[in-house]
Amino acid sequence: MKNIIILNGSPRKNGNTSALIQAFTEGAESAGHKVSTFFLDRMNINGCKGCFGGGKDAEHPCVQKDDMEQIYPVYKEADIVVLASPAYYWGISGQLKTAFDRLFAVTESSPDYEGPKKDCILLMAAESWEFEEILFWYDRLEKNIGWKSIGKVLCGDVMNIGDIIGNPKLDEARALGASIQ
What we know:
By secondary structure, the chain is α/β, with parallel strands linked by helices. The protein has a single domain (3-179), classed as Rossmann fold (3-Layer(aba) Sandwich). Helix content is 35%, strand content 19%. It is built from six helices and five strands. The chain has helices at residues 16-30, 68-77, 94-102, 104-107, 132-145, 168-179, and strands at residues 3-8, 34-39, 80-86, 119-125, 148-155. A five-stranded parallel beta sheet has the order 2-1-3-4-5, with helices on both faces. Helix 1 runs parallel beside helix 6. The longest helix is centred in the first third of the chain and has 15 residues, at 16-30. It is globular and about 50 Å long. The termini are close together. The model has no long low-confidence stretch (mean pLDDT 95).
């Protein structure tokens, strides 16, 4: 069994990104994995201060005390991190970027700033099919922090809530979740 954390960066609780997450979760849970999802838009998460003051307390790695306190323990135990977001201006949403930046406090817990090694997955819904900039960022992120991507589901042409219904990308997300070993 794998522990999977999903960071949902969409502001729409029932939007297209959430539909991808739901399909992925169904697949992963059917394969016996534990999935924890955080809907970041409804959480109180402040931006990183760049203070390099984190890492002094392993249980509370950041000097800021906000809803990241709920995410840190699940993140540390996770084998797989799923980054889920709509595409905003050829990038991930601000909600996801803010939370992800704050994960650096866990890296600061290591004397050599060696962050935890994780497998990762990208789930993304977008109005268009222009994912090049996002994939560039994701591939560099994976390389620079030593993670390993085990899958991506990118679904374009889904702007309005519900546009994704019946889309084969939902089956792809479900199959990806079910394929995790």
